Amino acid sequence: MFLPKVMPEDKWLPLRERGIMFFITLHGVLKWGVTTAALWSGAMTVLVSDFNVARDVPRAFMIFPAVGILWGAATWWMNERFYKNTIK
Hints:
transmembrane helix; transmembrane; single chain; membrane; mainly alpha
């Protein structure tokens, strides 16, 4: 299973200052959700002969970014926990 990656402190602090909503939008929705939707749609188009592009691609671009919200929140939580434990 893939787990969110803890960022080095020099990368984490500037993102932390911009807030959780910015982080979730950038890292969860855009970087993870949209990228995964595009890769999945491309792979399914090539690999599955009866893949319905008109139906399944829009679904992918709704579902994966929505799951990206959870991914971004989990990544934020892990980085916050790690950061707070290292500054103690």
